[in-house]
Amino acid sequence: MPGSGPLSGVRVVELAGIGPGPFAAMLLADLGADVVRVDRPGGQGLGIDPAYDITNRNKRSVLVDLKAPDGPARVLDLAARADVLIEGYRPGVAERLGVGPADCHARNPRLVYGRMTGWGQDGPLAQRAGHDVAYIAVTGTLGMIGRPDEPPAVPANLLGDYAGGSLYLVVGVLAALHHARATGAGQVVDAAIVDGTAHLSAMIHGMLAAGGWQDRRAANLLDGGCPYYGTYETADGGHMAVGALEGRFYAEFLRLLGLDDLAPAHQDWTRWEELRERVAARFKSRTRDEWTAVFEDSDACVAPVLSLREAPHHPHLAARGTFTDHGGITQPAPAPRFSATPTGIRSGPARPGADTGTVARDWGMTERVNDDPVADGD
What pLDDT does 2 receive? Predict the structure, then answer.
């Protein structure tokens, strides 16, 4: 089921897992790739109805029990016809199951084999269990987030799983795919959340080395330490986000707040506490919607902090179609956008095993892949 996006014609096999692997495969599917998710009988997922697992949209699903005698052969048959395979097992598991890189490359030397883990394929912690919060903790990035008098704030699993994990896996897969098409040689992409998350902090490490960043929370320009880059509570318990960094934006910010006398505090960090207190008091004097109206047509770099349910109704996001409704589910639309090869949501979340027949037909598979799956041996 290829789409019309820039990856139309690219075939991807996803060995089912949770978290960053499925999200990476969804992104490839959103871009037009024909993604076949290999689910295991009995499956695993988010603990929600599969009909709502948006990370499985634009995909198809087949059921394969990798512990059954013919299970590995079924996956290798898919790998032989694919451009990319993605798995998120602990190091060594795919090899023990008979679907590791060597097994797949023996069938398809051009295959890009993408491996998604938290700790990476090697290193002292490679075999340890973990989740997003532990991975970002050791990279130093979690310790940057939050107030100085409170524990570090957990940024959901957006920073590690998806930014440091999924997106780096996709970048690696696309780079390796380019190389494979130029040379005929596939390779393994080792995408570790610790590596990607550390890489995201490159600019800050440069600032730290130059003496322009303090190695503690809420003490810097971009981490909430600066009173004109952060969030403030409003009279109704809402919040406004402020990012008035540059001088002209800061001046506009003060003008609309009615605090022009604080203009010299922009470059005087000794006055930042005074600035913070007066700005906080002003924001507390009106509701979030009232302040939104005040700043609406300005370059003060101020915006309301919206909830997940509110975000799709923001006028700008609504006008751009940043969110869309498909199958009764409001969800983010595919991103980014392309002028010549537009993307879209072609189908809702794949149901485990629902597409075995069509995949066998479209991929020219043997009868073995189209057989009913053997019951899980666990």
Answer: 67
In angstroms, what CA-CA distances link 61 with 14, 21, 57, 340, 359? 9, 15, 10, 29, 8
Residue 326 has pLDDT above 80, yes or no: yes
Question: For residue 96, which phi and psi values (nearest 5 degrees)?
Answer: -65, -30
Strand order from edge to edge, sheet including 229-233? 229-233, 239-243, 302-304
Q: Which residue did the predictor score with more confidence, 378 or 131?
A: 131
Q: Is 178 a catalytic residue?
A: no
Residue 358 identity: T
User: Which position among 30, 34, 103, 161 bears the catalytic label?
Assistant: 161
Tell me the C-alpha distance between 121 and 214, whole Å: 32
Question: Angle formed by the axes of helices 167-183 and 193-200, to 10°?
Answer: 100
The token pair that represents 295 in the structure block:
């700043």
This prediction has a pTM of 0.94
User: pLDDT, tens digit, for every residue of 1-31?
Assistant: 667 899 999 999 999 999 999 999 999 999 9
Burial tier of 21 (Cβ tally within 10 Å: 0-12, 13-18, 19+): buried
Is 136 buried (19+), middle (13-18) or exposed (0-12) by CB count in 10 A? buried
Query: Considering 122, 131, 205, 371, which one is annotated as catalytic?
Result: 131
- Alpha-carbon dihedral sign for residues 142, 146, 150, 155: negative
pLDDT at residue 355 above 60?
yes
At 115, give phi and psi (nearest 5°): -115, 125
